[in-house]
Amino acid sequence: MKGMIRFEEVEFVYPTGVRALQGISLEITQGEFIGIIGHSGSGKTTLAKLAASLLKPTKGRVIINGVDSRKLPASEAARTVAYVFQNPDMMIFSHTIKDEVAFALRNLGFAERDIEPRVREALRAVDLDKPLNTPPHTLSFGQKHRLAIASVLVMGSQAIILDEPTTGLDYGRSLMLFETLRVLNAMGKTIIVITHDLDLLGRYASRIIILEKGKIIRDGEALEVLTDTDFLEQHGFMLTQLQRIAKELGVKELNPAKLAEVLLERRYRK
Amino acid sequence: MFTGLYIERKSFMHGLDPRSKLIWSVLVLAASIATQFNGIKGIPVFISTLMALSLSGLGTGVALLLIFNSLIFFLVSTIIWAGIYSSQGTVLLELGWLRVTDVGLLVALGKFFLIVNPIIAFVVFFASTKPYHLMWTLEKIKVPHKLALTFVIALSLLPSMVRVAGDVIDAQRARGLSLDKGSLVERIRKHIPIIVPLFSKMLTDVWDLSLVLATRAVGYGKRTYVLESNWKSSDTIFILVSLVFYGVITAWGMGLIQL
Amino acid sequence: MGYGSDTVVRLREVYAKYITSDKWIIENVSLEISKGETVVLMGPSGCGKSTLLNIISGLLPGVIPGHVKGEVFVDGVDPVKQGYKALTGKVGIVYQNPEIQIITRSVFEELAMAPENLGLSKDEVLARVEWALDALGLRGYEQKDPQTLSGGEKQLLAIASVLTMKPKILLLDEPTSMLDHLGTQMVLSAISRLKEEYGLTIIVAEHRVEWAVNVADKIYLMDEGKILLGGTPQEVFSQMDLVTKLGVRPPGVTEIAYQLIKKGVKLKIPVRLEDFKEHSW
User: Fold this and answer.
1) Cα C256 from chain centre
2) In chain A, which residues have their Cβ closer than 8 Å to the Cβ of C178?
3) Percent of chain A beyond pLDDT 90?
4) So what's the ipTM on this one?
5) Which range marks the domain in which residue B93 is found?
6) Is A142 in Cβ contact with C260 (below 8 Å)?
7) What is the pLDDT of residues B137-153, one digit of tens each?
8) Do B124 and B29 share a structural domain?
């Protein structure tokens, strides 16, 4: 499988002199569901912005679908790698949800007649069942969030990066969001999520990358990483009860139903 | 959030009492108004503000930024005022419909200084005075508390808006927005996706901020100030020198004295 | 009918809504909180947790326009009838966004702000700042620019900045939802310490259920403006069907217990990790 996004010894230093990332090399292939975790200042957002070509590396290269990101303006890269910002209010500005979602398509030069069906499809994908002429300011926070995702989804990019999408969402809505991501992933899209929620990642992600002070300190299979509780605790992460139980039972599993099965099995074995 | 225009430094201007700096800024304004019709008389004021700028430790970066941005303004000012006064005085330059006379040039320079000098002075004032002391000063001159607070809040929201603007621009670029293509009109219209979210964020922030202030008992009653500012001898000297310097220039500008 | 002299918060048949809404956001809510209790409010977005905190802090209807009906009693004051000023200094509230709660350019100024606003003497203001620095572990930070602090530190500062008013009650509206793991741990352990060392009455709207079950004396589950369940953590999460229906996430051990129960195992539903271990299931 061809590497969709590749980082080659990437370093990024902000104009203020802060070195956000160094020595980053990684390869993301089409169809992965990746969780990126790390404390504030670890470089997660910088990494994500580099992957979407919103930033260009100060050293090394970021290759997006075979093209060096330096040759790819952000507005062009958006066709391949879409970036959803944390706060929907930072993006939403139109009078109707149709215009909001269509914004990206109009920027990319789509014909007006092709736009409406794509807009409907994007709204359906995020389960936002409202008339197209609804004004965005009448939506609830959770709905605005889904609108923001739809307005990025509509570009049909192969990869979607979400920066802390569950901030401000309750558990039910967070699950719905991740279910939407799962559906998109099943359609073949690469999903990259920056989040602190280890529980959700345990249920949905296939791979987890951990950043600390600008370097990658762990990159592996999700359940493998999440059940390595000693490593996580050493690096300052909070563990959930399920993680601790999985560790005690010695299994690489975080699903409560599966853990219950393991417990029953062991009990009957005694 | 209250980052304000204040920049933390140890400089001469930072050490002055905010009241003396406020008086100084007003003196600069008065002198600039008095010399607005003759740019030559405005030059000493301009030099004094630049000196204050360097004495405030803000660095040449800020100074150059201000000067560079004002050059464009100077050009526009020259064209406008030269045009208005094109019938007076001897002609220095003629380019098509543009006729610049010596009088026109002097007025253009004067009007330019009228805008630039007070701006530099107030930038120095705000950058070298903590918002805390700003509020204290305003209260001292009997500005109602709520008004003083509003003023300080408005001032401090400016830099955070700059930061937010950067984020909004990034977010829209990620949706395919390219700000550097298209005609001038198109490009202005393309800024709407940036201005709208910025404005709504500003409103939300102001609202959130007022809630937080309410929870900290703002406006409860007479306020105590633990960190009061002390009027020092350097303040007295500074004010005396300023009164003389700007007083002379103001009188010169108004034609009361000849130099 | 008298109130327990211990009661610091009492709501009786309270209805509330904002001026912008046509239906009640809080419907027929009654609760009683005693001095020193730690209460956690949980529920899906829009259930009314924040509105409830706004009522207890007096911000609604005192600062945020709206209507409040029913009996509201907070530390001897009825903020609805007596006005917002009557509650000044009695209740401290902290919000979830660390960025919007910073007003000044130094930690010292930030801490001094509230007592200065109250017009206390200079000595008293200084004493309170000193106290707050120690209570929240911010010694050494006095001259720092709050903008340079981490998210967790900013929240600690926000908490300290309202505690300088020496309120009896501390309200927190999802204080960790915008923090990373380090910041979250900082804030949660600070809250636990405030409970134990200073006997504050604490009401938190918080999603982190696994922390809540260790710290809360009472948990209230809310949905659509009503309190559906209230009681000790163990009592609340024993109601398996209701909890699942509400879409509230129970602690991990509780989820496993629910699964075991579905498979026919009989056990007392645990909420804390320790309960699960001691258990013979």
Assistant:
1) 28
2) 167-168
3) 69
4) 0.88
5) 12-129+229-253
6) no
7) 888 888 777 777 777 77
8) yes
